[in-house]
Design goal:
By secondary structure, the chain is of the alpha/beta class. It has nine helices and 16 strands. 35% of the residues lie in helices and 25% in strands.
Length: 395
């Protein structure tokens, strides 16, 4: 079976490249993946694979039924949305949707899972159980397509025993993969703050309540949240990336200032405690300086937890499939992923697919306008995920 999957992945590589390039050239933003969903469904229809459309808007769910399909079910997930980035790559498959780009590799994830579906469909007489392929919209935008698909029943009828997901990783060379058991990625919350004062002439601050100065004090005070209240063994980060005043100028103190930021951590208990502390610190600081503060936290994705036993199995199967030299241990990341919602519901394993090639200059990080991949990674992505599915079904 292993050799057959490897052969099919090689044979499908050129087709996977074409699918990836089509998707890359036609990116769509979160929850707007109309044509992407139609493209996925059309390919599944072409191959005779059972599927349904319309979950969480434009999501597609396919079922690959082997012998005795009710024996066991496992799920595989790929996200489909792109980012609001203007692509700078001068390649034949450059984005045709100005200002929208697959800069996070979701075109790779989708093309790979399509390839996996094709492989498993051809091998369906050789395994027992059912593989549920989830093509998910809206990973990049709260509340996250995963949470909506779960609410709409994607994990029911049939109910998977476990789920796998993969994500491109430029620091790893194409051909390699990476795993990490346990807590792997952070929760992610959005912070929106409005600091209110009383505006006036910049030369007469004594007649004003300066929200700019108050905002500066709040930002500095909140940085102590991590350095003085958080257990140093718990990775956390608080970043304000946007500050904007309404009506201010070089000689005008505005009435209010708006701040936007993100808070990320690897511990859900500390996360809830930090929310309360942040709000209290900001509001008391503003009040002490004569102003006021509206502090709003939008809860985002939870901590992503890779099931210990499942991840250990997957790592060993990856060694069998690719060789030990191609499988690496990953560090924790304070980035976030809505795959975490699946990991809250069932045993889950989210691993990294190497896509880099320094010799060819393919080194740009994700979420940049020059991000691209060594497309040899598609063969690895298809083959390994199909192998993991077959092995997990056989338990």
């Amino acid at each position: 079976m292993q050799e057959h999957i490897q052969l099919l992945a090689r044979q499908l590589h050129a087709e996977a490249v074409n699918m990836r390039r089509h998707l890359h050239a036609h990116p769509e933003l979160s929850f707007q993946e109309v044509e992407t969903g139609r493209y996925v469904a059309a390919r599944l229809q072409e191959w005779g694979i059972e599927h349904r459309q319309g979950m969480a808007g434009h999501g597609v769910v396919a079922l690959i039924k082997g012998k005795n399909p009710k024996k066991r079910c496992i799920a595989l997930r790929a996200d489909m949305d792109a980012l609001p980035i203007l692509e700078a790559n001068a390649v034949p498959y450059q984005s045709q949707n100005t200002g929208v780009m697959h800069a996070c590799g979701h075109d790779v994830h989708t093309a790979s899972l399509l390839g996996v579906a094709h492989i498993l469909h051809q091998l369906r007489s050789r395994f027992e159980g059912t593989v549920k392929c989830i093509f998910q919209p809206g990973e990049e935008l709260l509340p996250g397509g995963a949470s909506i698909m779960i609410r709409e029943g994607v994990l029911r009828r049939p109910q998977p025993a476990s789920i796998f997901g993969q994500h491109v990783h430029p620091p790893l060379r194409a051909g390699k993969v990476g795993f990490r058991a346990g807590v792997y990625m952070a929760s992610a919350d959005e912070i929106y703050v409005t600091v209110k004062g009383r505006g006036g002439h910049g030369a007469l601050p004594q007649d004003c309540i300066d929200p700019v100065v108050i905002s500066a004090q709040i930002i500095v005070a909140l940085q102590q949240l991590v350095s003085r209240y958080c257990d140093p063994t718990v990775p956390s980060v608080l970043t304000f990336g946007k500050i904007n005043s309404t009506g201010g100028a070089t000689n005008v103190i505005p009435n209010e200032v708006k701040l936007e930021g993100t808070f990320r951590t690897m511990n859900e208990t500390w996360r809830m405690d930090a929310h309360k502390r942040m709000k209290r610190i900001a509001e008391q600081m503003a009040k002490s300086m004569g102003g006021a503060c509206d502090f709003n936290i939008v809860k985002g994705y939870p901590v992503l937890f890779n099931h210990e036993a499942l991840t250990a199995r997957a790592r060993q199967w990856a060694v069998e499939f690719l060789g030990a030299e191609q499988v690496e241990e990953l560090p924790i990341r304070l980035t976030a992923e809505d795959f975490s919602y699946y990991s809250q519901e069932m045993p889950a394993c989210f691993y990294r697919l190497g896509t880099g090639n320094p010799e060819r200059g393919i080194i740009s990080p994700i979420h940049t306008n020059t991000f691209d991949i060594d497309e040899a990674a598609l063969e690895t992505g298809m083959g390994l995920m199909a192998w993991l599915a077959v092995k997990e079904l056989a338990l």
